Structure formats: C-alpha cells, structure tokens
Amino acid sequence: MKHKDGKPINQPNKSRAVTFAVTLIALCGLSFYLGGIFCSGKDAVVANTIKNTLDTPKQTSGSLVMRPISFPECSLDYQDYTPCTDPKRWRKYGTFRLTLLERHCPPIFERKECLVPPPDGYKPPIRWPKSRDECWYRNVPYDWINKQKSNQHWLIKEGEKFLFPGGGTMFPNGVGEYVDMMQELIPEMKDGTVRTAIDTGCGVASWGGDLLDRGILTVSLAPRDNHEAQVQFALERGIPAILGVISTQRLPFPSNSFDMAHCSRCLIPWTEFGGIYLMEIHRILRPGGFWVLSGPPVNYEHRWRGWNTTVAEQKTDYENLQNLLTSMCFTLYNKKDDIAVWQKAKDNSCYEKLPKETYPPKCDDSLEPDSGWYTPLRACFVLPDPKYTKSVLTYMPKWPERLHASPERITTAHGASTSGSISTFHHDDGKWKKRIQHYKKLLPELGTEKIRNVMDMNTVYGAFAAALINDPLWVMNVVSSYGPNTLPVVYDRGLIGTFHDWCEAFSTYPRTYDLLHLDGFFTAENHRCEMKYVLLEMDRILRPGGHAIIRESSYFVDAVATVGKGMRWICRKEKTEYGVDKEKVLICQKKLWHSSNTGSR
C-alpha cells in the first residue's frame, strides 16, 4: 500500500506488538516476585533481629543481664575429655615426632556445650597428705597402667584404691632412696638453691611428690598417650602436673625458668633430629641450672643387656649425647651409677668461645626467647641475656627468701623503671595478702586440707600464690599468652606456672583442681573469649565439691552467676575487702552429680 504521493506506508508489526506485550507481562511478574522476596527477606531480618535481641545480654542498671541457660550432660564416654589433646582427633595429625600428642584444639563449631560427667562411682578425693600415697580407683579407673607398671611399683590396685609405693622404672626400690642419691650428687638441692624443677615423662609423678617435702616445687609433664592418665594420677594425688610433650612446639614456659630438669628413662630421643629436644631443655633451664638423666645411655657399661641393644651402640649414644651437651656449654657436674648430672653455663663466656660455624648454632634475634605459646621449635639454642646476672641460679636468693625478693626480670614485664617496677611488685604483694585474708573469711575451706590443687587463672606476679605459701596447697600460676609477659617473675620467685589462652581448653584432665581463681578476667578478655566457653572449661577442670573465686566488676558478676547456675553451681555474691560497689566477689561451688546420660553428645 502506498501514499498518494507513491511512497510506501509502514504497517504496524504484529509480531513486535506481541513481543512487547509478553515482555511487559514478564516484567510485571518479575516485579511481583522480587517484591515477595524483599518482603520475606525483610521479615527474616526482623525475625533475626528479635532473636538476637533475646539471645544477647543486655545492660540493665549498670550490669550485664544474661538470659537463663541450662547445660545438658555430656555422655559418659566424655568423662575424661581433654578437648585439645583428644585421642579421637589423633588420626587427623601425623605421627612424625609425635605431633598428634601436641595441642590441637577443636574449631568453635565443634566445641562441646555440655557438662562433663564424673565416672560411675566417683567419690570426693582423698585429702592431702594421705592422697600422695593412695587414691580411689573409681576416680581414675585405668587398669592398663596398673598391669604394665605394677612390677616397677608405680602403683598397685588394692580393693577400692590405687596405692603408690613410690617406685619407678629407674627406682624400683623407692623414690626416696633415688632422690637421696641425687642430693648427694647435687648439694644445691638441700640448701634452698634449687627450688623449681620440671620432670619430663613423669610417670605418676612420684619424683615430684617426694621433692615437695624437700622444698622443691616440680612441674610434672607428660602427654596423653598409651601410659593412660599419668597427669591425672599426679593431680589426683595432689602433685602439680600438666599435659605436654616436647615435639614440634616449644613448651609453654619462658626461658631461664627452671632450676633443674629431670628425665628418668623418659624415652625422649635427646640426640635425634639434631638434638632439638635438648635445645628446648637448654632454653627453659636457668643459667647454672642442672639437667639430670637416669636411664639409657647412662651407665651403659652395666645396663646395656637389659636395654635390648649392644654395648657398642650404647657407648656411641652416650658419646653423642656428651658431645651435644658440650656444644651447648653444658658441663658434666657429677655422675654415679644410673644418674648423671650436667650443669648449664652460668654466664656467656663459654658461648662466646664457640666457633661461628659450630652446631647447633646460636639462635638469632628473630625469635623471642620467652615465647612459649604455639611457637615452633628451632634447631638452635637460646643464649641467656647477659644483663641478667642475678638470675643465675647460684647468685639468686635461696628459698624461702627468694619468694619476696624483687626479681631482676621485673623491669621487662611492663617496661617500667627499676625503682617503679620494684615498688609495683611490693605493692602487689601487700594487696594480695589483704585479699587472701578476706577470701579466707568468705571461704573457710581455703587454707585447710580440703583445698589442695589451686589455679590462679590470670596472675600477674604470683602474689596470690605467695600469700598462700604456708598453706597445705600449691598454685598453678597462669599468665595470658596475649598479655604482658610476667611469667619469668613468677619463676624467679620460686613459684610455678604456664602460659595459656583461655579462649581454648587448658592442658589438663577433668576434675583436677579444688579451687580456681579469676581476677577481673571478663573485664579484660570478654572481647576475645566468650564467657560461656570459659566457664564451661572451668566446670570441666573443677572437682565436684570444688570452688571458684571470681573477682569481677559489678557489670559482669550477675551474668557469670547466671551461667554458673546453668552449670549446677551454687553461687553467692559478696563484697570485696574494700566494700566498693564497682567490684564484687563471687563464691561458687560445683556440686557432685552422677550421669543419667548414656548416649553420645
């Protein structure tokens, strides 16, 4: 069709109109759909907001209000649950250098939110000092270690109890006789010079238990392995102990801590992997300190037949050990029968004479000597800081004067001047003496045989432990791995402790402490560590009938009590010794209950 002038006329395109109509309908439908999503999404956001408002603690009248909560029981197969050294997780890690026995904590989505039950038939522990010699079988119901080690007199099962005759692989005639001989070789064990010790591969901690009567405080160290609950036996007896292994990570202690280290046939391959395990002993041993070894290859001339080896092999092993120790400036201090004693150099004169190309090499400045929390072992040995001449063992005040003497390393803790640091140190001592007097009024069991194993969960200088030094208890002083490094001061005082991060589980078995003490922890760490998990961990390691003293700001104390109630604790709020409103003391007791749960959780 054409216009009258002959030009063609454009007709409407029917197909284009149909396409336009379909597109319009589709757009309307899409708009409706998106509107529905938006509305439903908005409803979901509103719902989540309401839920979070209900779940999140509120601030009311100046305090944190926690929604009431009740924790279920874990199943009975969790009665000895150690979250960061859990055998159920070992298959995820390699066996090389026993890395599977190191700390491997579960991710947050695998954490248990249940109460760890005691074993069937659990009873309140036997009290100190009787507990050093016996414990209830049902509290630590392990038969493997009894069957395998009874011939060496580690322990004997008799009726409802385990008895500890004080034997060991290298001292079947009793630990007392063994330590008597050791004191002949190391006179410094008698006069207060030697105060702190570490026992690697401790068995049931008979060596550490015997030393308590001799004024020496020992950290007994052992992994959770096929020897079944060595550390749990130690703590059940009332002897200081912690789960740990020298593998690929440094031990959780600062440098120059222990006056003495001990290995009684502990099966640590000291000369393997370039001697890296012995380098770690060198790091944590104080200048002038002693390393004691009994068992292979010491006294190989008379013992090799019982070691399934040859005299030539054992001679080579001993010579390699001696050469390694010499290369790190250890000197053979004394030796008799099955016991050999080496002493770490007292100053740096020996280290300065070592050739630059010697092995093992000296560590450079790239790694902090005191770093002991998830710090990899390195094939080098740490040189003591030459400015700390008074931290050498033979130059330190003897015990008990050492407890209240101002430690030389106090100045490094906060970077203050010497006079300011010493003043702060003594002020802290006086403050805690007054606080302990008040605590004993609030908790009369403190200072009696009812409380033996104590942990100060966030100490500074160890003043809490120092104020309790005359009571029949011992204190594990815990210093935050994220806070100022004051743990060297704790060891310089003649006390013991460890680094730890309370966002994770502690390296111990359940039901191992009678008293846990916290001072302002949630005020300082609530931004990192969730309150619920910290308190559940406290419940795990606290003995039934045990207590917690939680000193906290008034803002947090009610919320802590609410969570405590959900764990079946009985808590009461008390005033501090100063009677101020901004800070309160919460006294809590964990009740003894028996499991009604047989399923897994």
UniProtKB/TrEMBL annotation:
UniProt-annotated location(s): Endomembrane system; Membrane
Example GO BP: methylation
Cellular-component GO terms for this entry: endosome; membrane; trans-Golgi network
Membrane topology qualifier: Single-pass type II membrane protein
Highest taxon in the source lineage: Eukaryota
GO terms of molecular function: methyltransferase activity
E.C. designation(s): 2.1.1.-
InterPro entries named in the record: Put_SAM_MeTrfase (IPR004159), SAM-dependent_MTases_sf (IPR029063)
Spans through the membrane: 20-38
UniProt keywords, alphabetically: Glycoprotein, Membrane, Methyltransferase, Signal-anchor, Transferase, Transmembrane, Transmembrane helix
Homology family: Belongs to the methyltransferase superfamily.
Protein name: Methyltransferase
